[in-house]
Amino acid sequence: MAAITSTYHSGYQGSIEVDNVALPARSWQARHSVTTADVTNLTSSGAQEVVRGVESMNGSAVCSWKATSGAPAFVVGSIYATELITNGTQKYSFNALITEVAPSLDVKGDITYTVSFMSTGAITVAS
């Protein structure tokens, strides 16, 4: 009997690296977007016209607080080389400004922290 393969990817195949260190992430989310400027004018014949603006990659990751490594090894307000990998092949590479580290504690669970970031500079997408 032939094995059945999934049509979808699973989250366990993803990862996040900050400063070439894999974070003990449970999840990450990011928004790759571009701003727009409305340049609609009286010669636009009643149709909206927009132009491309600034590209960004902003998001956050929820990580487990490991007993062996202590506090996160990065500093809020600093910029680090960052890679987001979705399924082992799709990768977003950029420099990220760490904007926030938010620890979270559950008396019946573990300690986690959420790290938030904003891209600075170019974003490379590779498959």
Description:
The chain is mainly β and 127 residues long. The chain has a single domain (11-126), classed as Elongation Factor Tu (Ef-tu), domain 3 (Beta Barrel). The protein is built from no helices and seven strands. Strands 2-1-5-6-7-4-3 form a seven-stranded antiparallel sheet, with no helix packed on it. β1 (15-18) and β2 form a beta hairpin. It starts with 14 loop residues before the first strand and ends with a strand. The relative contact order is 0.24.
Descriptive labels:
mainly beta, Elongation Factor Tu (Ef-tu), domain 3, 7 strands
Break the fold down into its secondary structure elements and pairings.
Layout: E1 15-18, E2 21-22, E3 25-38, E4 50-64, E5 79-85, E6 91-105, E7 111-126
